[in-house]
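S.,

As promised, the zinc ion run. Input:
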Amino acid sequence: MALRDRLFPREPVCLSCHSRIIFSRLSYICDSCLQELSYVTRGCLRCGCQLPEAEIAVSCQLCSSQLPKLERIRAPLIYQGKSREVLLELKYNKNKAMARPLGELMADYWRFFSSSKGRDYLLVPVPLSRKRQTVRGFNQALLLGEVVARERGMVIESLLVRKRDTPPLYHLNNRQRNLVLQGAFQLPAEKIIRVAGRKILLIDDIVTTGSTLNEAAGVLLTAGACRVSALTAATAERV
Ligand SMILES: [Zn+2]
Ligand SMILES: [Zn+2]
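Predicted complex:
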């Protein structure tokens, strides 16, 4: 650190709008940017997607039949507008510091839904393929999970391996998605002991159809996990 920075530390600056942060509830994002984010205000109890405010149902029509392996998914943000911008900043602009406020938001959201029992879960980031990880230089799910682990006093372990990349799944039907995802994740034999009898919380940046998380959950359940939930920063809008 330069001597000038040590003597006169710079004011923290918002990673999104670059204005000086006077006060904020989260690290690195100013309060006015926080107010611009789109939050899930009425989430499906199962998959966490935003339900229409006027509806009485507590779960969406899509998830109960399509995500049989997952206990539940939770996500604080809706993937649109400013929420989408901050996630793109992390993933494609490779602004790794953005994982900090997003991870803090996820940690708060998980605490809200799970109270003290939520700390029993072992955090497992959804892995990237080796090729994609090399190109990007980091796994955004691991960065987010590390923040959640630190905030909540939980443990995170990169247990799963991704054997191959999968194409976008939203235009495929249920059967086609299962075919594309079959065998995409693997749990190395020596890691099975870490999973057996445990409650697992999968971590990812965004949930779209939920099929990828469901496939990863299947691998962990086969290895003896007692239940698998997922926590992501954002949930895609369903049309
Ligand atoms: Zn800002
Ligand atoms: Zn749902």
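The two ends are 49 Å apart (CA to CA). The chain has a mean pLDDT of 90.

- D.
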